[in-house]
Amino acid sequence: MINGLGAFTTLIVTGIIAVEKFTHGAWVVVVFVPLLVFVLTRVNKAYGHEEQDLEAGLDTIQRPLPQRHVALVLVDRLDEKTLHALQYAFTIRPEDIRAVHLATDPQEATALRQAWRESQIEVHLEVIPCPDGKRGECLGRFARGCASSEVQLTLIVPGPAHPSFWQRLRAGRSWSGLVSPLRDLENLSVVVVREHGGAGHTSSSGRIRVSPRIHHVAIILVDQVDRSVLKAIRYARAIEASDIRALHAAVDPHRAEHLAEQWGEVGHILGVPLDVEECFDRNIARTVTEYVHREEAPDVEVTVVLPRREYPRALQRLLHDHTSRAITRSLASEPHVDVVVVPYRVGSAPSLR
User: Fold this and answer.
1) Tens-digit pLDDT profile for residues 195-227
2) Structural domain of residue 203, as residue ranges?
3) Is 352 inside a domain boundary?
4) Which of 24, 51, 205, 224 is paired with 305 by a 20 to 30 Å CA distance?
5) Same structural domain for residues 33 and 162?
6) How confident is the model over 299-324, as pLDDT tens digits?
7) Angle in degrees, 0-180, between the axes of helices 135-146 and 165-179, rounded to the nearest 10
8) Is 221:251 a contact under the CB 8 Å cutoff?
9) How many domains does the chain have?
10) What is the full DSSP assignment across 32-44?
11) Distance between CA atoms of 115 and 136, rounded to whole angstroms?
12) In DSSP terms, which residues pair with 208 in a beta bridge?
C-alpha cells in the first residue's frame, strides 16, 4: 500500500515537472528515456535468442566429423602470390582443387591459359567469362555449382605480404564485391594467403611443381562451447591439420574457468585439447600472435580458425567483427600463418553431426 502510494505520488510529480519544464529541457528525458529503454530491451531480447540458437542441442554433442572438402583458388595471373595460394591449397589436402580465373579481359585470359599450360601445374585452370565485369556474381554462380550441404568449400585468395595503404584500399573494395554474393553459402570459408618466401616451388625446363608444407597446425579461437565452435572444429578436421588445438585468450578469469569446466566435460568428445592464455590487458590480438609465434617453424603452416557469428545486417556485422579484424591485421605479416573465418549464420541451427 505504501509502495503503491509512493509510486503514484512520484508519477504525479514527474508529470507536473515534465509539463512545466518541457520546453526547458525536460523533453529530452520524456522522449529519450523511453526510447533508450525500448532499444535496450530489444537488444537484450536479440542476445537471448542468439544464445538459445548457439546452445541448442549441446546436451547431445557428438564429435564433429569432416565433410568432403573442395578448395577454390582465385587466380589473376601466374605469379608468386598464386603459387603460395596453391601451396596452401595442397597443404590443407582437399579432395578437389580448382584454380579459378574470373576473366574480364579475353586477351589476358588467353595469355594466362598459355602460361598455365606451359608451367604444367597439376591443377586445372577454369576460366569463367565475366564480360560485364561483375566478378562477384560470376564467382557466386560458380561456387554454388560446387556447393552442397555435404561439401565444405574453402575460397583461397592470394594477397601481397606487405600491402600498402592504397593496395589495402583497393583490395577492400574488390574483396567486398567478391564476398557479398557468397554470404548465403552455408559451408564456405575464406582465407587470404599472403605472399611469403619458403621452399615448395621448384622449376625445371619451364615446369613448376608446387609442394605442400610438411607440418600443418590448426588453432581454433574459442570463447565458449557453442555451435559456432563445433562448426570451426569440423572445418579444422576437413583441412586435415596434423595438429588441432583450441585457444582461449582469458580476458576474464571467471569466464576462462567456466570454459575450462565446459571443455573438461566435452573435450574427450571433441578430441581437441584446450590451451588457455592469460590476457589481462584485454589485447586478444597480441595474445593470439604471441601464441602463434611459438608454433612457427621453417616447415610449418599455421592456420588460425576464427569462428564468427554471421548476422543478416551490415551494422551488426560491423559491431561484432572488430576482434577478428584485429587478429587478422596482427598476423598479416607472419610468414605461412593464415587466418580462416568460419561463419556461423545466427538462426540457422545446422546439424551438429
Assistant:
1) 765 555 555 556 777 888 889 999 999 988 888
2) 56-345
3) no
4) 51
5) no
6) 899 999 998 877 655 555 555 667 88
7) 50
8) no
9) 2
10) HHHHHHHHHHHHH
11) 25
12) 203
Where helices occur in the chain by DSSP H, the ranges are 2-20, 26-55, 80-91, 106-119, 135-146, 165-179, 227-238, 253-270, 284-293, 314-320, 322-331
C-alpha cell at 41: 530491451
Say if CB 302 and CB 217 are below 8 A apart: yes
Q: At what angle do helices 322-331 and 284-293 cross, to 10 degrees?
A: 40
Q: Return the C-alpha cell found at 87.
A: 601451396
Q: Are 164 and 38 in the same domain?
A: no
Q: What is the mean pLDDT of the chain?
A: 79
In angstroms, the CA 231 to CA 343 distance is 8
For residue 302, what is the domain's CATH number?
A: 3.40.50
Q: Give me the residue label for grid cell 590480438.
A: 285
List, in order, residues 6 or more apart from 316 with CB less than 8 Å away: none
**The pTM is what?**
0.77
For Cα atoms 332, 335, 336, give the angle at the middle one, nearest 5 degrees: 100
Same domain, 12 and 146: no
